[in-house]
Amino acid sequence: MLQHGHSGWLGLRYRDHGTDWVELELPWREDLIGETDRMVLASGPIISLLDMASGLAIWTMVRKFVPIATLDLRVDYQRPARDHASVIGRVECYRNTRSAAFVRGIAHDGDPDNPVAHMAGCFMAINGEVRHVPG
Fold it and tell me: Strands, E, within the chain: which ranges?
């Protein structure tokens, strides 16, 4: 589980990663529901899940920590998550330049072929470069 800051408060959990992608889980909690008549996670925590997974995917790809800022994060919701379901965010960093990194991903509640949302984003390096460290 991620322990600090907003991610820690949300209870985000690490699931898996590859050379250019990261997968995190947002566990269902009653205080995170968005609709009182349904027990589904609100959109805000799902956006936070995808934003954090984006940063981790970038750092995984470039193999170093560089301070970054979210320039653009577009989330297109396809459907609500299932009642009482955790949401999984899987994000890949598919391109990086000297000053920017580009990501795409999905949020799903157990079936990646039936996503809750699709996302795309662009992140900017702060006082540094978003470049791969050879090795």
Answer: 13-17, 21-26, 68-77, 87-96, 100-108, 117-125
